[in-house]
Each structure stands twice: as structure tokens, then as C-alpha cells.
TrEMBL record:
<dbReference type="GO" id="GO:0004181">
    <property type="term" value="F:metallocarboxypeptidase activity"/>
</dbReference>
<dbReference type="InterPro" id="IPR003146">
    <property type="entry name" value="M14A_act_pep"/>
</dbReference>
<keyword id="KW-0645">Protease</keyword>
<feature type="signal peptide">
    <location>
        <begin position="1"/>
        <end position="19"/>
    </location>
</feature>
<feature type="active site" description="Proton donor/acceptor">
    <location>
        <position position="375"/>
    </location>
</feature>
<dbReference type="InterPro" id="IPR036990">
    <property type="entry name" value="M14A-like_propep"/>
</dbReference>
<dbReference type="GO" id="GO:0006508">
    <property type="term" value="P:proteolysis"/>
</dbReference>
<dbReference type="GO" id="GO:0005615">
    <property type="term" value="C:extracellular space"/>
</dbReference>
<keyword id="KW-0862">Zinc</keyword>
<dbReference type="InterPro" id="IPR000834">
    <property type="entry name" value="Peptidase_M14"/>
</dbReference>
<keyword id="KW-0482">Metalloprotease</keyword>
<dbReference type="GO" id="GO:0008270">
    <property type="term" value="F:zinc ion binding"/>
</dbReference>
<keyword id="KW-0732">Signal</keyword>
<dbReference type="Pfam" id="PF02244">
    <property type="entry name" value="Propep_M14"/>
</dbReference>
<keyword id="KW-0121">Carboxypeptidase</keyword>
<comment type="similarity">
    <text>Belongs to the peptidase M14 family.</text>
</comment>
<dbReference type="InterPro" id="IPR057246">
    <property type="entry name" value="CARBOXYPEPT_ZN_1"/>
</dbReference>
Length: 412
């Protein structure tokens, strides 16, 4: 076996040791509420700073909290099962697999066999800009709290900026790694795959593959399950002074009305005021100054949802049928490609009420009628930690849905 394997193992251990915030003993429970009261109770727990809801039903609970939490469930009569027994062990195991994974040999600075770091994403965009100077422009949407440029790529085959625009972003939530991978795949397909030429013939695409680069890098190096931005707010636990803000509660449209927290320690902290975060303010400035945007797609994970506004109220927008029809066509296309079916509907009605999301602001204030939040699939027991081996299949399965959206705008 020579010296390669021992070297790899040493590298693995070093990487594991670098992840200093340990989730040893943290468990994830899947709750199974049945009655309205039980659903209400679970919903009420979602903003408890000691709990981290990975989805509507899956909640990560610290070792100290497990006993009282299970007592509470018992009292409420809510059934549950253990989804992850030790979160840290699952994370370490996947990290190990990523390190052992072989490169995909594409010869380009991007890969779909592993999750790319911020620098790799930037390098890929730069490479596209120099290989395809007539259709690609790379720049930045703005600057994050920690001073990173937020990457922006514009794909246009002509028209002097007068064509309809599809605006795509991903990675507003740091730990949802499959989302930036999806955005990168869309970029690759549009720019490098000639069979998608019809999608860029008379439509421009403006794509922000990593809206929250600070949080993403932090989730790569220190704390896998980081969700928020990395701005400095009030200290709440340990030595970490940057508690950050849930950027998808920070848009100033019905801000803080529902489904958001005013506690800096909560995973759904809406921030001290609307648009307090440079990342959300940059998106606001860009989208409000670009009148040609006809479609907005924002990628998250996990849970297989195609959501449209509103997130702040259960009332449907007057044009909900158009939103619903298009989402169902997109869903059918990815089902035909082998994906499992997504739940389609308004985010309040099919997921939960949460104000201050980007989708609501884009529709309600910027006036982009077609606005969607897409929750890509999670991976088995990993949730956010969809194994790297599943990236390629996941993004290529959803691609036909993106194609349906693109064709719709091209035909307008
Ligand atoms: N999981 C997403 C979140 O919690 C869903 C957002 C849906 N949109 C909304 N405006 N609530 O941010
Ligand atoms: Zn999210």
C-alpha cells in the first residue's frame, strides 16, 4: 500500500481536528405531530435558541437538552424517532469520504464530485470569463461582512442589456451546500454546454452562486451546520462573537412579523433591522436597479419544495395560478428525469410562515412576478450533509426543471 494511504489518513485526522466546534452527542429527532395542537406546539419550538430545526420536522438537540426535550414530547403526546444519533460522527465520516474521493478529471476548476470552496468558485468564474469573453461577465454583487466579494456572473449573448433576465441565487443559508453546487451546475450548463444555446439565445442570466460566502466558508472550516451570516452581533455562547443573522429573515418586507426571532442567538434571528446585512442589502440594490428581471429563483436545501410567495401570510398572491402552473411543469420535468416529486405551493401553506425572505421581497417590493424558493433534496440521514457522491446526480436531475423555467421566459 506504500505511503499514500498513511499520508491520507494523517491528512484526514488533521482536517477533523480543525473543526473545533464539536457536535458530539447532538441528536436529530424526527417529530411526528398529528393533531393541530401538536403541530402548533412544534411550530412554537422553532425559534427556541437551544434547538436547531433542520426542517419542519427534523430538529437537532444538544446533549444537555435531550432529556427535557423528550419529556416535553411525551407530555404533548408527540411520536418521534431518532434520525441521527451523533451529529459529529456523521459529519466526520462524510468529511473522510470527501477526502478519499477521487477527482472527476474534468480539467476545469470546478467539480461536482465534491463541494467547492469559495476560492474554487471564484477561480471557475474567472476561468469562464477568460474562456468565453463574448458572453460571460464576472463581477461582484457587493462585499460580505468579512470583506469577501460576493460572486456574480452575467451570461448574455447580446441585446445590450435589454433582454429579459433570469436572476438566480444560492447559498443564502451557509450549510445548504447543495444549493451553490446547483447554481454552479446551471452556470456550467448555460455557458459550456452548446445544447443549451436556446436558453441564452434571447434571455440573459444573472447568477449569484454564493450569496453568503462568509457563512459558507465558516461551515467548511469550523462549524458544518452554520446557517446565518457572520456579522458581529451580541455574543450569546462560548467565544464566538459573531452570531450572525438569518439573511432569509432580513429582507425588509413585513420584516419580523412572523416566523422570525429577535434573539441574536436564534437560528432565525432577523437582525437588528431589515437589510442590516451587507449581503441582503447588495441583493436589494442589484434587483431593484434591474428592471428586466422576469424570474427569480433562490436555491436552498433540504426538503423537496417548490415554493412561491407569500411567506408572511397564508393569503395567496392574486397571480398564484401562474406561479403554481409553472412550478408544477418544472416539477414534472425533474420527476421525468428520475427525481422524487416536490411539494408545490405558497411557502406559508406548504412549509411554514416566515417573513423577511428574499422571495417575498423580490415579488412584493421589486415587482418580479415570478419568484420561487427551491428546496433541493437532502441526503438520507445527513440532511444538509448530502454526501458529495450524490451532488452530480442531484444537480443533473433538477436541471430539466431549470430548463422549463428558462424556456418559459424565452417564450414570453
Ligand atoms: N426554508 C426556507 C427558510 O426558512 C424557506 C423560505 C420560504 N420563503 C419564505 N419567505 N418564508 O428560509
Ligand atoms: Zn435555507
Amino acid at each position: 500500500m506504500g505511503r499514500v494511504l498513511p499520508l491520507l489518513l494523517v491528512a484526514c485526522l488533521a482536517v477533523l481536528a480543525a473543526g473545533h466546534k464539536s457536535l458530539e452527542g447532538y441528536r436529530v429527532y424526527r417529530l411526528q405531530p398529528i393533531t393541530t395542537e401538536q403541530f402548533e406546539w412544534v411550530r412554537g419550538m422553532q425559534h427556541d435558541p437551544a434547538l436547531d430545526f433542520w426542517s419542519n420536522s427534523d430538529v437537532m438537540v444538544s446533549p444537555e437538552r435531550q432529556e427535557t426535550f423528550l419529556d416535553q414530547l411525551q407530555r404533548e403526546g408527540i411520536q418521534w424517532e431518532t434520525l441521527v444519533n451523533d451529529v459529529q460522527m456523521t459529519i466526520d465520516a462524510e468529511k473522510m469520504r470527501q477526502l478519499m474521493a477521487s477527482p472527476d478529471g474534468m480539467g476545469r476548476a470546478i467539480s461536482f464530485t465534491k463541494y467547492n470552496r469559495y476560492d474554487e468558485i471564484q477561480a471557475y468564474l474567472q476561468e469562464l470569463a477568460s474562456s468565453y469573453p463574448s458572453i460571460v461577465t464576472v463581477g461582484s454583487l457587493g462585499t460580505s461582512s468579512e470583506g469577501r466579494a460576493i460572486p456574480l456572473i452575467k451570461i448574455s449573448t447580446g441585446g445590450n442589456g435589454n433582454r429579459p433576465v433570469v436572476f438566480v441565487d444560492a447559498g443564502i443559508h451557509a450549510r445548504e451546500w447543495i444549493a451553490p453546487a446547483m447554481a454552479l451546475y446551471i452556470i456550467q450548463q448555460l455557458v459550456e454546454n452548446p445544447s443549451n444555446a436556446d436558453l441564452i439565445a434571447n434571455v440573459d442570466w444573472h447568477i449569484v452562486p454564493l450569496l453568503n460566502p462568509d457563512g459558507y466558508e465558516y461551515s467548511q472550516t469550523s462549524y458544518r451546520l452554520w446557517r446565518k451570516t457572520r456579522s458581529v452581533t451580541t455574543r450569546c455562547t462560548g467565544s464566538d462573537t459573531k452570531n450572525g443573522v438569518d439573511a432569509n429573515r432580513n429582507f425588509d418586507f413585513h420584516w419580523m412579523e412572523v416566523g422570525a426571532s429577535s434573539s441574536p442567538c436564534s437560528e432565525t434571528y432577523a437582525g437588528p433591522r431589515g437589510f442590516s446585512e451587507p449581503e441582503t442589502a447588495a441583493l436589494r440594490d442589484y434587483v431593484s436597479s434591474n428592471r428586466n428581471i422576469k424570474l427569480y429563483l433562490t436555491f436552498h436545501s433540504y426538503g423537496n419544495y417548490l415554493l412561491y410567495p407569500w411567506g408572511y401570510t397564508s393569503t395567496l398572491p392574486s397571480d398564484w395560478r401562474a406561479l403554481d402552473d409553472l412550478a408544477r411543469k418544472a416539477n414534472a420535468a425533474q420527476v421525468a428525469a428520475g427525481g422524487s416529486s416536490y411539494a408545490v405551493g405558497s411557502s406559508t401553506n406548504v412549509l411554514y410562515a416566515a417573513a423577511g425572505g428574499s422571495d417575498d421581497w423580490v415579488k412584493g417590493v421589486a415587482g418580479v412576478d415570478l419568484s420561487y424558493t427551491i428546496e433541493l433534496p437532502g441526503g438520507g440521514i445527513y440532511g444538509f450533509d448530502l454526501p458529495a457522491s450524490a451532488i452530480s446526480r442531484t444537480v443533473s436531475t433538477f436541471w430539466p426543471a431549470v430548463r422549463v423555467y428558462g424556456e418559459y421566459i424565452a417564450a414570453l
